[in-house]
Inverse folding.
C-alpha cells in the first residue's frame, strides 16, 4: 500500500536528493514530499507517524551529507513559496522556515537592518539555520529570535518565545520539530553602513573559504577554545584525498568534492581526519554536518 495515496501535495517516490544538497552527493529518498500548505504538511507528518516512516527535513541542503544508499524514509522540503515568505515590520522580520538565509541576510543589509551582517554568505534555509544556530565568529542566528513557530511530528503547532528556546554553539533546543516561521528582532540602522559591513563579511568568507567548490561548509565543530581548521591544518592534512573528496587547501575544515566523488569518499576523509587529529592533538572532533 502506498503511504501517500490521495496526498494532496507534491510527492515523488525514489526521488534523487543529490542535486538538492551542496555536496551534490548521495542516493535517493524513498519519498520526497513538498507540501503546499501547513495542512498538507500536517497530513504528511500524520501519514509518516501512521506508517512508522522515518522523517527528515531538508532545508537548503547546505549542511548535510546523504549516504550513497539514500534515505529509507520520507524527506520533507518546505520549498513551496507559502513557507518562504519574508516580511519586514520596523526592526523585526518575519521569515518562513523555508526562506533562503542568504536572501534574508542580504535583504536586511540592504534595508539598513543591522545584526545579520556577519552571517553574509552562509547558505541554507531559515529553519535549518535556526535548528543548528548557524553563525560565525561575530554572530549567531539564534540570538536574534523573538519567537519561532514549530510543528512537531504529531502535527501539533506551537509558538515558542526566545525564553522557551535554547541556542548553543551550532545547536538549539528545536530538535526534530520543523520550523514553520520565525520572528527576528534586529536594529534599525543606515544601509550605507549595514551594506558595506555585509559586503566585508562576504569578501572575508570568499578569501578564507573555498566558496566556489562543492562542500557543505565547515565539517567539524570547533572544539571549545580551539579551531578545528587549525588543528586539521597543523596535522598536515590539507589536500588529503580519498577518491573524489579532499580536505580543502584553502580551509582545512572544509571537504571539497569533484564530480564523480561518492559520499563514501567523504566519509573516508572524515574518518581519516578524525583519527589523525585525535592522535596528533588528543582532540576528538565532532561533526557539524549531518550525515543521513
Ligand atoms: N586556520 C588555519 N588553517 C586552516 C583554517 C583555519 O590555521 O586551514 C586558522 C585561521 O588562521 C584562524 C583559525 O584557524 O586563526 C580560525 O579560522 P577561521 O577564522 O577561518 O574560523 P573558523 O573557526 O574555522 C568559524 C566557523 C565558520 C565561519 C567562520 C567565520 C565553525 C566550525 N566555523 O570558522 O562557519 O564562517 O568562523 O565566522 O564554527 C560553518 O559553520 O560551516 C562555517 C564555515
Amino acid at each position: 500500500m502506498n503511504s501517500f495515496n490521495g496526498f494532496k501535495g507534491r510527492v515523488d517516490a525514489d526521488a534523487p536528493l543529490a542535486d538538492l544538497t551542496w555536496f551534490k552527493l548521495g542516493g535517493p529518498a524513498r519519498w520526497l514530499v513538498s507540501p503546499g500548505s501547513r495542512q498538507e504538511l500536517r497530513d504528511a507528518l500524520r501519514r509518516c507517524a501512521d506508517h512508522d516512516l522515518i522523517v527528515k527535513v531538508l532545508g537548503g541542503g547546505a549542511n548535510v551529507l546523504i549516504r550513497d544508499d539514500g534515505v529509507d524514509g520520507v524527506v520533507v522540503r518546505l520549498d513551496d513559496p507559502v513557507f518562504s515568505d519574508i516580511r519586514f515590520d520596523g526592526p523585526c522580520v518575519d521569515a518562513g522556515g523555508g526562506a533562503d538565509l542568504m536572501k534574508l541576510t542580504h535583504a536586511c543589509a540592504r534595508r539598513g537592518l543591522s545584526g545579520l551582517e556577519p552571517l553574509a554568505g552562509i547558505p541554507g534555509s531559515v529553519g535549518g539555520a535556526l535548528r543548528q544556530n548557524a553563525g560565525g565568529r561575530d554572530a549567531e542566528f539564534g540570538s536574534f529570535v523573538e519567537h519561532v513557530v514549530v510543528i512537531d511530528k504529531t502535527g501539533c503547532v506551537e509558538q515558542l518565545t526566545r525564553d522557551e528556546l535554547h541556542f548553543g554553539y551550532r545547536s538549539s533546543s528545536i530538535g526534530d520539530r520543523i520550523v514553520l516561521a520565525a520572528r527576528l528582532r534586529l536594529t534599525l540602522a543606515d544601509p550605507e553602513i549595514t551594506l558595506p559591513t555585509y559586503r566585508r563579511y562576504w569578501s572575508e568568507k570568499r578569501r578564507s573559504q573555498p566558496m566556489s567548490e562543492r562542500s557543505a561548509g565547515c565539517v567539524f565543530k570547533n572544539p571549545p577554545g580551539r579551531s578545528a581548521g587549525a588543528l586539521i591544518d597543523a596535522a598536515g592534512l590539507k589536500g588529503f584525498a580519498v577518491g573524489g573528496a579532499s580536505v580543502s587547501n584553502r580551509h582545512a575544515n572544509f571537504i571539497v568534492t569533484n564530480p564523480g566523488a561518492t559520499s563514501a569518499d567523504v566519509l573516508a576523509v572524515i574518518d581519516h581526519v578524525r583519527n589523525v587529529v585525535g592522535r596528533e592533538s588528543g582532540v576528538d572532533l565532532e561533526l557539524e554536518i549531518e550525515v543521513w
